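Continuing the batch. This is chain 6 of the set; chains 1 through 5 are on the previous pages. Same settings as before, nothing changed between runs. Recording input and output for traceability.
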Amino acid sequence: MIVEHMDVIASDGTKVGTVDHLDGPDRIKLAKSTSPDGQHHYVPLAWVDHVDKHVHLNKATVAVKAGW
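Output for chain 6:
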């Protein structure tokens, strides 16, 4: 289950943001306070590999940022 304030980790182990909230049925809105450019970014749920205490993505950092 994805909840607010969980770290979002790219497949290469880099933190790419923190969950703000789920935005609709198919994407995660990241908190702008953890964004390098101070903007909200979105991650499709299709990129989620698994969830434990963090949200782990199946994309590397470069691919995640290219998809914003």
